[in-house]
């Protein structure tokens, strides 16, 4: 299967995210975790809290900032996935859903924007 430009940029964004997350004191536990139709880009821990990261990457501002593309349906799915993960791993009592937006504009340094505790 041929990889598209968007999937290449998404993978690159996730690779950069893992590095950023680790540099900010998190331990990455899962990457692209799936349950049925649900997927979480990155699951990481920090202290006693488990963080569920949705990663959004953009190479242009043509369609707005990356974080603006995270809609209500995606957040509902993230919550369901977090609850299922907690059911499978009951040792985690504290959960948080975060969005990590990355701007990878040509000729500019990468820009990260971490939105914490989206709704938990």
Secondary-structure topology with pairs:
Layout: H1 5-23, E1 27-35, E2 38-46, E3 49-58, H2 72-88, E4 94-103, E5 111-115
Structural write-up:
The chain has 120 residues and is an alpha+beta fold. The protein has one domain: 3-Layer(aba) Sandwich (Trna Endonuclease, Chain: A, domain 1). Helix content is 30%, strand content 36%. The protein has 2 helices and 5 strands. The chain has helices spanning 5-23, 72-88, and strands spanning 27-35, 38-46, 49-58, 94-103, 111-115. A 5-stranded mixed β-sheet has the order 1-2-3-4-5, with helices on both faces. α2 links the parallel β3 (49-58) and β4 (94-103). The longest helix is centred in the first third of the chain and has 19 residues, at 5-23. It is globular. It starts with a helix and ends in a 5-residue tail after the last strand.
Overall mean pLDDT score?
A: 91
Q: What is the structural class?
A: alpha+beta
CATH class value: Alpha Beta
Question: How many strands?
Answer: 5
Question: Largest beta sheet: what is the strand line-up?
Answer: 1-2-3-4-5
Low-confidence runs of at least 5 consecutive residues? none
Distance between the termini: 37 Å
**With helices defined by DSSP (H or I, 4 residues minimum), what is the helix count?**
2
Task: Bin the strand percentage.
Answer: 35-45%
For the sheet with most strands, the description reads: 5 strands, mixed
């Amino acid at each position: 299967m041929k990889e598209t430009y968007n999937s290449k940029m998404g993978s690159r964004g996730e690779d950069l995210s893992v590095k950023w997350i680790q540099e900010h004191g998190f331990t990455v536990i899962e990457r692209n975790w799936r349950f049925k139709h649900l997927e979480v880009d990155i699951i990481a821990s920090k202290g006693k809290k488990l963080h569920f990261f949705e990663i959004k990457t953009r190479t242009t501002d043509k369609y707005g900032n990356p974080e603006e593309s995270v809609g209500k349906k995606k957040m509902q799915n993230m919550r369901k996935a977090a609850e299922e993960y907690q059911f499978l791993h009951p040792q985690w009592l504290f959960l948080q859903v975060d969005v990590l937006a990355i701007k990878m504009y040509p000729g500019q340094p990468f820009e990260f924007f971490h939105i914490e505790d989206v709704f938990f």
